[in-house]
Amino acid sequence: MQIRNEIEEREKESLSPYAALSAETLGRKKRERECNFRTAFQRDRDKILHCKAFRRLKHKTQVFISPVEDHYRTRLTHTIEVAQIARTIARALRLNEDLTEAIALGHDLGHTPFGHAGEYVLDDILRKNYGQRFFHNEQSVRVVEVLEKDGKGLNLCYEVIDGIRNHTPDDPWPETLEGCIVRYADRIAYLRHDIEDAITAGVLTERQLPRKHMNVLGKNLLDTIISDMIRHSRGKKKLSLSKEVQKAMDGLYDFMYKHVYTDPIAKKEESKVPILMRQLFRYYHYDAEFQKDCRSEAEQIQHTVDFIAGMTDRYAIDKFQSLYIPDEWHSPEVE
What we know:
The chain is mainly alpha-helical. Helix content is 59%, strand content 0%.
């Protein structure tokens, strides 16, 4: 029973000539026996969905540090929203929906606790002390190539790795249109949901949103931006938005950067993140028991980075409290 072959044939018949076909993947670093009923990209999606790093995203910050309330986004809900937006675009453009979803689900697996605040601290520690850098997208690649499955990695296809690595604005564009979709979907998702969360938090009101950009994007940002992208990209080798919508998106991002992403009220707890992260890094980097299997300083640094970056917000806070905050003394109970 080779259902996979049937699916691969349907892809060839129905997808755009610019789509990445499962049967034509550039492959994995290590050969695997093919699944009878899933394509290579479907298997990669499932591998990511079931890995430990994906589950940890539920307790990692999106914008608001370690939110107690249930309705704020976390890194996990952000990832799910990115996947939904990306799949919608891919389906409409007749691109490979399975590849798109795999990239979307894996794009933030390497994110640190406390969101970008944690990422910047870890990068600063490495840059100033060890001449290295830390970027969450590169750590996401390390998670799927090395750290998951007890150090054996998930052995994903080249196209998935490429999309994960190149999803941030500072990187080259991915080699597949599916990867490019995820890069757009990432920004579309966080623009929309960060506005909603900021209003819920009282950091913004709807009246403060820049009218000239909102008049273009309307009340439903997702419908406007996604529809515009589909209209301007269908049947083409490159994704694009109309100049009007692209300008409005960029302007709205600039507004959010000023009024939310760097706002002192929204980010007041972030001032505590460097102290916590630096103390944890110092402790584990010099802890002999933690580093007992490392044979060089380079291995020690990497071991510490992997451990700190993999922490959830609550785990990092718990570790800091147990290491540096004194417990209350209780007298022994007398029988």
